[in-house]
Amino acid sequence: MKFVDEAAIVVVAGDGGNGCVSFRREKYIPRGGPDGGDGGDGGDVYLLADENLNTLIDYRFEKSFRAERGQNGQSRDCTGKRGKDITIKVPVGTRILDQGTGEVMGDMTRHQQVLMVAKGGFHGLGNTRFKSSVNRAPRQRTDGTAGETRDLQLELMLLADVGMLGLPNAGKSTFIRAVSAAKPKVADYPFTTLVPSLGVVRMDNEQSFVVADIPGLIEGAADGAGLGIRFLKHLERCRVLLHLIDLAPIDESDPVENARIIIKELERYSEKLAGKPRWLVFNKLDLLGAEEAASRAESIAKALGWEGDYYIISAANRDGVKALCWDVMSFINTQPKEQPAEEAAPEKVEFMWDDYHREQLANPVEENEDDLDDDDWDEDDDDGVEFIYKR
């Protein structure tokens, strides 16, 4: 299935139902008074995180989602039925942004997490609400309000503990194939990896971590060169970054300059990402002798001003890979997971007597007298219900 990590959708909550103007008319009770019911609230729109999904491709084709409108009020003090909510499933790791305001509405970071993204309209009030000692036959009612409409940007961000960085052909995909069951494509030409991939590294029966491989970066990626930096967002939730440096580039480029390109593009993309723990991993030991590889790695680290430890491995032969993975596992065990912003819990709010309806009571809509019978209180009527409402 094609990997799609961005999609734009429109969500529309249901409108609230209108209030009803109705009067009770029964045999022997010619003046029973008002009995118009309230409308129903409009349906809400929710997002639901589903761990069984791994792409947003469905929302490249279906872009509009609308909840049900609340029903209008009825006579006999019957309240209109509430509109049905709709639930949209998205992959775990999806970030939701409001395109209109730029607001980050939430991050779907766990299975079955629910987030309300559009609130349904409030119900209108029936004429029963307006009866009083001085207004015994009210013809006032209120309309329901419109539901929220939002233009949403969905961004899927992979949830991984470790992120791989490097130029094309640095050996990132080969490394993931060596340490996990993932099988990303490997070849001897640049940009073999076109989409991010995940691999689970199992150290023993109780310990494991997830590593993410993204397409390689090149100079000018922040300006759109190569595949750009759109895939760097998948590393934002990683706890450590492995910066792979090719000790023997096939194009005979300078490994020091190659490393500086990655660092520069990271800084241009995000200070937060550039500040994450980053380990230097020198790859392709198998193409050089052990002494020459150690000498090159030392000179590169010195040129970069690197003061920490570094690793020399061969992803193809798996030399030094196991020791690196155990050190990564130990580091991860000491680093707490990054906690997402506090989630906004789904709301189920009753709007029977909220501030909105207090304002509506103060400024009701009055039915046009031409639309009503002149015989509303005709005592010759034997029975029946006078039923007046707006559709």
UniProtKB/TrEMBL annotation:
Residues 360-384 are annotated as: Disordered. The keyword Mitochondrion does not apply. GTP binds at residues 166-173, 191-195, 213-216, 283-286, 314-316. It is an enzyme of class 3 (hydrolase). GO terms for biological process: ribosome biogenesis. One of its GO terms (molecular function) is GTP binding. Residues 160-333 form the OBG-type G domain. Residues 1-159 form the Obg domain. CDD domains: Obg (cd01898). Residues 366-384 have a biased composition (Acidic residues). InterPro entries: G_OBG (IPR031167), GTP-bd (IPR006073), GTP-bd_Obg/CgtA (IPR014100), GTP1-OBG_CS (IPR006074), GTP1_OBG_dom (IPR006169), GTP1_OBG_dom_sf (IPR036726), OBG_GTPase (IPR045086), P-loop_NTPase (IPR027417). Keywords: Cytoplasm, GTP-binding, Hydrolase, Magnesium, Metal-binding, Nucleotide-binding. One of its GO terms (cellular component) is cytoplasm. NCBIfam families: Obg_CgtA, PRK12297.1, PRK12299.1. Belongs to the TRAFAC class OBG-HflX-like GTPase superfamily. OBG GTPase family. Monomer. An essential GTPase which binds GTP, GDP and possibly (p)ppGpp with moderate affinity, with high nucleotide exchange rates and a fairly low GTP hydrolysis rate. Plays a role in control of the cell cycle, stress response, ribosome biogenesis and in those bacteria that undergo differentiation, in morphogenesis control. This is GTPase Obg. The gene is obg.
